[in-house]
Amino acid sequence: MDSAYKSRENSFSRSRSSSVSSIDRDTKEAVTKLQFGESYGRKGDTLPTACLWVGTSLGMVLLLPMSIPTEKERLEEPVTTRPSGTVLMLKGSVLCFSFLDFGGALIQSPYEVWQDPKGPEDPDRPRRRKLVNLSPLSSQEACGDGHLAVVCSEKQAKVILMPTQAVLFTHNITESSFVLQADVVSVCNSVCLACFCANGHVMTLSLPSLRPLMNVNYLPLTDMRVARTFVFTNGGQALYLSSPTEMQRITYSQEMTDNLQNMKAAAGGVVGDLARARIALDQRGERLGELEERTALMMNSAEMFSTHAHQARPTS
């Protein structure tokens, strides 16, 4: 009787501890990345709509379709969202979302700017601004019948096909370390996924195939300032704060290096041309000075000749 009671007590303790650990594990999950864009909220959608992509610290990717009222109804009705479920799972925290068309070109997010066509004369008066859409190409036209979604986490990168949500390519970026910063950038008239790892490696992956293009050990992570401020930019460049007052720029593209060398050569050529022009001007000035001296001598000789001619005139 006692043994049966103890076995049930131990079983209950294990069950309770496992449940508590499961709850603790769930409560530790946090949102690490948010990305707004026009995409396909559900597998059966035929047209892209406004969506919110959510990435969590446990590698979960959620897609939230958004219902936005018209401009007239916007002040009375709120924006509503309906979760469509988990799209996919990755290893590590989600860091980056990006969207490509079927040709591999980067789909720019539609943007809108605020304009105030009739600004009030009183600067203290609150202004009502009008929202004007200046997007050169709508996302619906860019997406067409579908698009590709690029998702990168601390360990993995995946390319999924929308709206079917099928995983086309998967690449394990690192096993011994983890990715600190990742972004989809334009390099050499193409796009790639650039990653900066905690072990100091700078990596690039082709898109959409996720084929490794470069893996260079650039900078061991000795200062957390680098990890917090490191960002990738277009054109094969990256920036980070090397000190509280210094910004460091690096390039990982041969095209950028060649352009810099050409710029230096062109600048050197311009400096050389300026130096030669200055020398020519100096020489011209010297020649003009010599000409002025000769002119003065000729004038003096003419005056002396005139004086002697008057003195030599015969008297009658």
Order of secondary-structure elements:
HEEEEEEEEHEEEEEEEHEEEH
What's the number of helices?
Answer: 4
Radius of gyration: 36 Å
**Low-confidence sequence ranges:** 4-9, 11-23, 128-139
Helical residue percent band = 25-40%
Biggest sheet, open or closed, and with what strands and sense?
5 strands, antiparallel
Shape: elongated
Q: What is the distance, rounded to the nearest whole angstrom, between the alpha carbons of the first and last residues?
A: 171 Å
Strand content: 35-45%
How many individual β-strands?
18
Oligomer: single chain
Could you tell me the mean pLDDT?
Answer: 78
Q: What is the structural class?
A: alpha+beta
List the helices and strands and how they pair.
Blueprint: H1 2-27, E1 31-39, E2 49-56, E3 60-67, E4 80-81, E5 86-89, E6 94-100, E7 112-115, E8 130-133, H2 139-143, E9 147-153, E10 156-162, E11 166-172, E12 179-187, E13 190-197, E14 201-206, E15 212-217, H3 224-229, E16 231-233, E17 237-243, E18 246-251, H4 254-311
Antiparallel strand pairs: 1-2, 2-3, 3-4, 3-5, 6-9, 7-8, 9-10, 10-11, 12-13, 13-14, 14-15, 16-17, 17-18
